[in-house]
Amino acid sequence: MRIILNYILFFLLYIFGSRIIFIPAGISLGINKYIVFFIVFGLDILQIPFYFYLYEKGTSKIKFLSYIYSRLPSMEEKKNSGLLKFASRLGKCGVVFVAAMPAFGGGMWTSVLMAYLLHIERRQSVILLALGSFIGCAIVVYGFDSLIHLLRFSSFTGGK
Q1: Where are any strands of DSSP class E within the chain?
Q2: Cα(50)–Cα(48) distance, rounded to whole angstroms?
Q3: Where are the beta strands (DSSP E) in 23-160?
Q4: Closest-CA residue to 37 (of 133, 105, 152, 106)
Q5: φ/ψ (deg, to 5) at 121
Q6: Coil, strand or helix: which one is 24?
Q7: What pTM, to 2 d.p., does this model score?
Q8: Which of 112, 118, 134, 135 pairs as cysteine with 51 (C-beta 3.0–4.6 A)?
Q9: pLDDT tens, residue order, the chain (160 aa)
Q10: CB under 8 Å to 22, separation ≥6 — which residues?
Q11: Can you spell out the DSSP letters for 112-147?
Q12: Angstrom distance (rounded) from CA 82 to CA 68
């Protein structure tokens, strides 16, 4: 029963947090780091079509989104924005970089928006987004695992 509660808590953290919270929490709950890695990677991949759908058709099908979309700057204003200029300079590498960022503001939502605004072909953008997610998950999993081992070694040696 406890294992089931750990997995439920684990998935709730993914919904309300990002990989920077979700992966360390899963490892701390006793879930194997490789299982956590592939769960997070898989959930990131599952988000891609959902976000593309929201950007392409969501505003016409969901009234709440059409209201929000009407309040956003026009496409001409977006093309002149600093973020899009920065993203266009980075190009496809920027999509991978933003998808790999293990922090709030980075991740799938933002990188799908970047790929959408840069008009990168869908198949190619999914590959770039998956690569970025894989790199980001690896950074967090292995970074947190290294931190745990470092702290264990430090406490074993008495902090000397």
Answers
A1: none
A2: 5
A3: none
A4: 133
A5: -55, 140
A6: helix
A7: 0.75
A8: 112
A9: 677 776 676 666 666 667 888 888 888 878 889 998 998 899 889 888 988 888 777 666 666 666 666 666 555 665 666 656 776 788 888 889 888 887 765 678 778 888 887 889 999 999 999 999 999 999 999 999 888 888 876 665 555 5
A10: 10, 13, 14, 36, 40
A11: HHHHHHTT--HHHHHHHHHHHHHHHHHHHHHHHHHH
A12: 21
Token duo for residue 23: 């992966």
* Residue located via tokens 């922090």: 103
Contact status, residue 114 vs residue 98, Cβ threshold 8 Å: yes
Residue 112's nearest CA partner among 124, 127, 95 is 95
CB of 109 closer than 8 Å to CB of 51: yes
Taking the C-alpha atoms of residue 148 and residue 155, their distance in angstroms, rounded to an integer, is: 11
